[in-house]
Structures are given as structure tokens and as C-alpha cells.
Specification:
The complex is a heterodimer of chains A (about 300) and B (about 475).
Chain A lengths: L2 H4 L1 E12 L2 E12 L3 E5 L6 H8 L7 E8 L5 H10 L3 E4 L2 E5 L5 H6 L3 E3 L12 H8 L1 H4 L7 H4 L3 H20 L15 H14 L4 E5 L7 H17 L3 E5 L3 H7 L2 E6 L2 E6 L1 H6 L1 H8 L6 H8 L2
Parallel strand pairs in A: 3-9, 3-10, 7-8, 8-9
Antiparallel strand pairs in A: 1-2, 1-4, 4-6, 5-6, 10-11
Helix pairs in contact in A: 5-9, 8-9, 10-11, 13-14
Chain B lengths: L1 H35 E5 L5 E5 L1 H20 L4 H4 L7 H6 L2 H25 L6 H26 L8 H15 L2 H11 L3 H29 L4 H21 L1 H4 L12 E2 L2 E2 L7 H4 L7 H26 L2 H11 L1 H6 L4 H27 L9 H14 L4 H18 L21 H15 L8 E2 L9 E2 L10
Antiparallel strand pairs in B: 1-2, 3-4, 5-6
Helix pairs in contact in B: 1-2, 5-6, 6-13, 6-16, 6-17, 6-18, 7-9, 7-10, 7-16, 9-16, 13-14, 13-16, 14-16, 17-18
The chains are: A alpha/beta (about 300), B mainly alpha (about 475).
Keywords (chain A): Amino-acid transport, ATP-binding, Nucleotide-binding, Transport
Family (chain A): Belongs to the ABC transporter superfamily.
GO biological process, one term (chain A): L-valine import across plasma membrane
Chain lengths: ~300, ~475
């Protein structure tokens, strides 16, 4: 059994997404390993972002099951029992399981704890860097209610809670080397800093699974090396599993434990970076040749 | 360096003065035949020529003064252009200087009735000024209430006056209700409801308005931008039409009169035994009530301001502003956008309800006429002109718009025979001037008087965020 199949944090089963007559994703199944970095790659228009939007609740899939587990993966019988009930979440022997396709988008983030970033950066540009990180901790800060009296009257219990949130924000700002820009508007930061800040913002919400949509887009080689380091530290130090879409092969091959390849809405390969790199279908997808011409191409590029 | 600047500025002043004088002279020359001579029908029916050189002089001075003003502010040579804020005083309002100015601002507000009485020479003559103060403060409060919805949460609400109406009618109906009055007459004394109705109904008006905010908000807050604006506009009109047509409850277009006056926490402002003046050993004067009304609306406006400041620093306030910035990012962080919008809508509505109850107790008469779309438009204009989200900007623009429109009534010198003649009514031109003022402000300061936003929390220093980065929201 492959490492990501032993204890998957997210099990995608037979996911399909249709927009009218267009089938963007068709019958895609894969596993995201707990504590691993999983990359989804594929040519433009392969359906990567659609898969992401289904996982993070922004789209309701036309068909399929997205089972996210806290603690440990549920046994197949537990999962089937939940699927049959029509409910969205259940406690299991070793934690909890959420069927993401049944949750509204804000619940995917708040209850199932799936964080995400966007292909085109979506920071709150008119708010400061620190404010951005505090908005991310909204769920933790409003546990006692959206208009809790303690917060309205600024009682000590509230001030402690807020101080803890600021502390977490400061820790993250130090990790992404932006502590000196904490009071500046987020929209004033350079592009690379905005990318890192968006990741820090998603992490401040303390997700168990972090989904990154092309985190290295537009970064220079030095910045993408720093990004690699940051993502590995998120995997190792924060015990957060990472799922990313990426075109930058230095990032994909450098840090991924597991790579899933999509083409025309179908999965064409699934394995370790080395396996995927040498998979003839992947090469064909990227270089655009007929299946029977793959061998010739392989010989040509020397794999 | 300093000398060079001084020389440059004196040269600038000389050039500006020369230009202003020249343009004034050209204007005067042009206008002598056009405006200075006016042919009217004489008493015998023949045409007579009237001379209006005073008017020409006024126009010339206006043109000269405006050009001088433009030279000294907007057209400050090419080097300085765009470098410094064009209205440094206004820009400072939101900054550290604004912090120092705030106590002064509050002191002036607190002492305003005293200043009005001293300035106009007695309680009686000060009535106009006190009433004007109350009038302006009502709009300041409404502006601050709508600022929560439009300025912070970025939800364009064109029907805010509906909540103002809900508040006013809640108080008017409950205060005039015979069963309630009878109920309290049996338990707490015959006069209880007449004296205390405002103080009991004030929170109820706010709560009911908030409830209506929720009822309206629930179905429509999934709409965005223009669509939300149109639905809220329609809601405002529906409330007004219901008030007109539900004659059994609201007495229709005739309105509700005989609303009990405000009491000093149970002590009536009456001339007899046990009245306010009698109890405090003062000579009776009906102005006592107006001065008290001034302090009530001041307290209500202050409550709105303090609540908004506090809410902005709470997670819910930050979520409102985040929602205005980017709704999709908010959802990706687990923020329930419907609930968050609903809180903004209902809290804004609540302050509108408070203001409505105050309006009813001040005028002691409510009718649907008072809650037309024009009111919503004026309140929205106050918020937009002030700079969305800025409290001080909203207060300044309320004073400018409402006070300015009121001041137009006082321009009696324009009725001088040398100018427009006694038939001229400057207040008829209020809306025209109002429109021009809006166009001018939007041309020069498209983000309102105070366009920057202050951060709600900081590590080292509280910085201002330039208006260029802050988004207006799409509903």
C-alpha cells in the first residue's frame, strides 16, 4: 500500500464536476496523505482549480465524495455509514470525518478546517498585515459569540484572548520575515511578500489541510526556494498536510511527497515525483504527442 | 532653503493676486451689460431699465476669490502639485492632530447650548440655534448609523429611512396606545406612561428596527451591489406605502399627532407644581425642553460613535471591513458572510430606530411624509461625502450639508433690491447648490472628505491606510 493510502487526510472518490454541457472534472479519485505535501499538476484547463474549488466548498460537485478526516482516517464501514445518513459530519473512533461536498464553503473552512489561498492573490489590501492575520483568526475569536459582551466591554478575558491572537500573528510574521511590515497596508507589500502573507493568513486559521493554488506563480527562483522551505516547515512543524496546484516544477519535484496528474478533467497519473516524471502519459500530456509516439519522444529527451 | 521657500510663496501670492484681480475685472466688464442692466416692466407697463451693479460686483468678487483660492490650493505651480495633500486640514482630522482635536470637539458640542444662549442673548432667542443643533446632530447620528452598513460592511443601502420610520412609528404608536396607558395607570400611576413612554420605547424602537433589519436582510443579503441597492430602495418605499395605506393602524397620510413630550426622566417640562423648572428652582421656560432634547440627541449620537469605534476593534467589525474588501477570501477563512452582513445591517438599523424614536418625540408628530426617499438619499450623501467608514468625516459632512442647507435660508442679504430683489428665495436653490457641492467634492476628493482609514490594531504605530487601497465593497 502506498504511503498516502495508509492514512489519507482527504479521500477524493469519483469526483465529477459539470458546468452545463462541459465536463470539467470527470471521475477523479485520489488520496491526500496526512502530513504529506501532495501536488496536483497538469496542463492548463486540466481541471485542477475546479478540483480545488470542490474541495474547499466553493463549488458543489456534480458527483463524488470528498471525505476529510481529523485524527485518523475512518474505517470504510464508518465512512459508508456516514455517507448513507445524509449528514455532513460524524465522530469516528479516532477523531472526526467530514463530507466536504455536503458543507457550505465557510463550514469547510471553520468546521472541517481546510484552509486555502487563491491563484490571484486575495488579501484584504486596505487592511494592515496584522489585521489580515487577525481576520483569519475570526473563528477562534468569536467562539463566545459574534457580539460577545466580553468583547463589547473590552473585559480582561477578552483582552487575553485578543493578545493570544496577536501573539500567533506575530509568530507567523516572524516566520515569513514580515514582522517589520506588520502595521503597513497589505496592498502596499511587494508581490512575493503578498504571496507569503496569504499563506500565513490561511495558516493563522489553524487548518489541518492547506490548499495552495499556484503558490509559486510569479516568484523569482530565490523566492520560490524560500517558499519550498516555508511549505516544508508547515508540513513538519505545524503538522498540516499540504495540497498544492503548481506549474513550477522546481517546487513540485522539490517538496512533493506525492503527485497527481490531471489532463482534460481525468487523472492520468498518481505516484511519487520520480514515478510521475518518467510516466509516458505525463510526458505525452505535457509535450502533446500521440501515445504511440511517446517512446520516440522519450528517447529524444533522454528519460 | 527657508528663504527660497518664502520668496517662492510670496511670488506665488503676487501672481495669484494679479490673476485674481484680472479675472475679476474681466468678469465685471463682461457682466455689466449682461447682468448689470435689467429690463423690467414699469408700473405703467413700459419697459424700464434697472441697474444691478451690486450683483455684478458680487459675481466679480466671487470669480476673483475662487481663482485666488484655486491658485493657492489646487494650482500651486507644477512642482508642488500632487505632492502635498490638497486639504491638509482635513487630512489632519484623521491623524494624530485629530486625536488632540477630539476633546475640543466634544467640549464645543457640550457647551453648544450655552454658547447659543449667550450668543443670541437669552433662552428665547437661542431657540433657532438649539433647534439647528438638534437637527444637525440627528443627521450626524443617522450618518454614523448608515456608516456601519455602507462604510464598514460595504453594503449599499438606499432604504435606510425605513428603519428611521420603524423607530419613529414604534414610539408614536406605543406612546399613544390607550391599552398600554391604561395598564400602567392601574399599576404605576395615571401619568406613568405619558411621562416614561419615551424612555421605555427608545430601546424598543431600536430593537424593532433591528428586527426589521434582520427580516429584510435575510432574503436580500445574498444579492450584491446594484441589486442590493435596488431591493433596499424598494423596501424603503414599501414601508412608506404601508404607513400611508394601513390607515387603521397608522392613521394613513394624516399621521399621528398627540405624541407625549419628552420628560426629564419622569419629570415633565411643565410650568406648574412638580415640573422641571419648579423642582430645580428655575424660572419656567419652554426652552428647557429643547436644551434637554439637544443633550439627549448628543448622548444618542455619542452612543452610536462609541459603539462603532468598539465594534470596529472587535472581530465582527474587522469581519465587516474584510467583507467589504473581499467576500470570497472571507469565506475561505470560515467567516459566515450572511450572518456577518446581517449583524451590520441590523446594528445599523438599530441606530436608525433610536434616531427615529427621537425624531418622533421631538416633533411630536409623525407622518409618512417625513420618510421619503429624499431622506435616505441625504443620509447616504452624508456618508459618501464624509468618506466611507470615517466617523469624523461623516460628522463634518453632516454639519456642512445639513447646516449649510439651513444656512441658505438665512442669506437675507440676497433679497436686497440691488441683488435679486425681495422675491428671491435662496432656499429654493438649496437642492441646486447641494448638487453642485456634491459634484465638486466628488471631482476633487472622490473618496470623500476623509479618504484614509485608520488601522484597528497595531504593533508599533497606528498607520493610516490610503484610500486608494481600500475598496468600497460590492454589497
Amino acid at each position: 500500500m502506498r504511503p498516502w493510502e495508509q492514512d489519507p487526510i482527504l479521500a477524493v472518490d469519483r469526483l465529477s464536476m459539470r458546468f452545463g454541457g462541459l465536463v470539467a472534472v470527470s471521475d477523479v479519485s485520489f488520496r491526500v496523505g496526512r502530513g504529506q505535501v501532495t501536488a496536483v499538476i497538469g496542463p492548463n484547463g486540466a481541471g485542477k482549480t475546479t478540483v480545488f474549488n470542490c474541495i474547499t466548498g466553493f463549488y458543489k460537485p456534480s458527483a463524488g465524495r470528498l471525505a476529510l478526516s481529523h485524527g485518523a482516517a475512518p474505517s470504510p464501514s464508518e465512512l459508508d455509514a456516514l455517507t448513507r445518513t445524509g449528514r455532513a459530519a460524524a465522530r469516528t473512533r479516532k477523531g472526526g470525518v467530514f463530507l466536504l461536498e455536503r458543507l457550505p464553503d465557510h463550514k469547510v473552512a471553520s468546521a472541517a478546517r481546510v484552509g486555502r489561498t487563491f491563484q490571484n492573490i486575495r488579501l484584504f489590501s486596505g487592511m494592515t498585515v496584522l489585521e489580515n492575520l487577525l481576520v483569519a483568526q475570526h473563528m477562534g475569536l468569536t467562539e463566545t459569540g459574534l457580539l460577545s459582551p466580553a468583547a463589547l466591554l473590552n473585559l480582561p478575558s477578552w483582552r487575553r484572548r485578543e493578545a493570544a491572537a496577536v501573539e500567533r500573528a506575530k509568530t507567523w510574521l516572524e516566520r515569513i520575515h514580515l514582522i517589520h511590515r506588520a502595521d503597513d497596508p497589505a496592498g502596499d507589500l511587494p508581490y512575493g511578500d503578498q504571496r507569503r502573507l496569504e499563506i500565513a493568513r490561511a495558516m493563522c486559521a489553524q487548518p489541518v489541510l492547506l490548499c495552495l493554488d499556484e503558490p509559486a506563480a510569479g516568484l523569482n527562483p530565490r523566492e520560490s526556494a524560500a517558499l519550498n522551505e516555508l511549505l516544508l516547515s508547515i508540513r513538519d512543524a505545524d503538522a498540516t498536510s499540504v495540497l498544492l496546484i503548481e506549474h513550477d516544477m522546481s517546487v513540485v519535484m522539490g517538496i512533493s511527497d506525492h503527485v497527481v496528474v490531471l489532463e482534460y478533467g481525468r487523472k492520468i497519473a498518481d505516484g511519487t515525483p520520480e514515478e510521475v516524471r518518467t510516466d509516458p502519459r505525463v510526458i505525452a500530456a505535457y509535450l502533446g504527442v500521440e501515445e504511440d509516439a511517446v517512446e520516440a519522444i522519450e528517447a529524444e529527451v533522454g528519460v | 532653503m527657508h528663504e527660497a521657500t518664502a520668496a517662492a510663496s510670496s511670488g506665488l501670492l503676487a501672481r495669484a493676486l494679479k490673476d485674481a484681480a484680472a479675472s475679476a475685472a474681466i468678469t465685471a466688464l463682461l457682466l455689466v451689460p449682461l447682468v448689470g442692466m435689467h429690463a423690467t416692466e414699469g408700473p405703467s407697463g413700459a419697459l424700464v431699465l434697472k441697474y444691478r451693479f451690486g450683483l455684478v460686483a458680487i459675481f466679480a468678487l466671487l470669480v476673483g476669490g475662487l481663482r485666488l483660492g484655486l491658485h493657492l490650493t489646487v494650482w500651486r505651480g507644477d512642482s508642488a502639485r500632487g505632492a502635498a495633500p490638497r486639504f491638509p486640514a482635513l487630512a489632519r482630522l484623521a491623524g494624530p492632530a485629530g486625536d488632540a482635536a477630539k476633546p475640543v470637539f466634544f467640549a464645543v458640542l457640550l457647551l453648544y447650548p450655552l454658547l447659543a444662549v449667550l450668543g443670541s442673548g437669552g433662552l428665547g432667542p437661542s431657540r433657532y440655534w438649539i433647534d439647528l443643533g438638534i437637527y444637525i446632530l440627528t443627521y450626524v447620528m443617522l450618518g454614523w448609523g448608515l456608516n456601519i452598513v455602507v462604510g464598514l460592511a460595504g453594503l449599499l443601502d438606499l432604504g435606510y429611512v425605513a428603519f428611521y420610520a420603524v423607530g419613529a412609528y414604534t414610539f408614536a404608536l406605543l406612546a399613544g396606545s390607550v391599552p398600554i396607558s391604561d395598564f400602567f395607570a392601574g399599576t404605576l400611576g395615571a401619568d406613568f406612561w405619558r411621562l416614561w413612554s419615551f424612555w421605555v420605547c427608545l430601546p424598543l424602537s431600536g430593537l424593532l428596527a433591528a428586527l426589521w433589519g434582520v427580516i429584510l436582510g435575510f432574503p436580500v443579503l445574498r444579492l450584491r451591489g446594484d441589486y442590493l441597492a435596488i431591493v433596499t430602495l424598494a423596501f424603503g418605499e414599501i414601508i412608506r406605502l404601508v404607513l400611508i395605506n394601513w390607515v387603521d393602524l397608522t392613521n394613513g397620510g394624516a399621521g399621528i399627532a398627540s405624541i407625549p413630550p419628552i420628560s426629564f426622566f419622569g419629570i415633565p417640562f411643565s410650568s406648574g407644581e412638580g415640573g422641571f423648572a419648579n423642582l430645580f428652582g428655575l424660572e419656567f421656560n419652554p426652552m428647557h425642553r429643547n436644551i434637554f432634547l439637544y443633550f439627549v440627541i448628543l448622548a444618542l449620537a455619542a452612543l452610536t460613535a462609541v459603539a462603532t469605534i468598539r465594534l470596529r476593534r472587535m472581530p465582527v467589525g474587522r469581519a465587516w471591513e474584510a467583507l467589504r474588501e473581499d467576500e470570497i477570501a472571507c469565506r475561505s477563512l470560515g467567516i459566515n458572510t450572511t450572518l456577518t452582513k446581517l449583524t451590520a445591517f441590523s446594528i445599523g438599523a438599530m441606530f436608525g430606530g433610536f434616531a427615529g424614536a427621537f425624531f418622533a418625540v421631538r416633533i411630536r408628530f409623525v407622518s409618512p411624509e417625513s420618510f421619503t426617499f429624499m431622506e435616505s438619499a441625504v443620509i447616504l450623501a452624508i456618508v459618501v461625502l464624509g468618506g466611507m467608514g470615517s466617523q469624523i468625516g461623516v460628522a463634518v459632512s453632516a454639519i456642512l450639508l445639513i447646516g449649510g442647507m439651513e444656512m441658505l435660508r438665512n442669506l437675507t442679504f440676497l433679497k436686497d433690491p440691488w441683488l435679486f430683489g425681495p422675491d428671491f428665495d435662496p432656499s429654493l436653490y438649496r437642492m441646486l447648490i447641494f448638487g453642485f457641492a456634491m459634484v465638486a467634492v466628488m471631482a476633487w476628493r472622490p473618496r470623500g472628505l476623509v479618504s484614509s482609514r485608520l488601522a484597528t490594531i497595531f504593533l508599533k504605530e497606528r498607520k493610516k491606510v490610503s484610500g486608494d487601497l481600500v475598496r468600497e465593497g460590492h454589497g
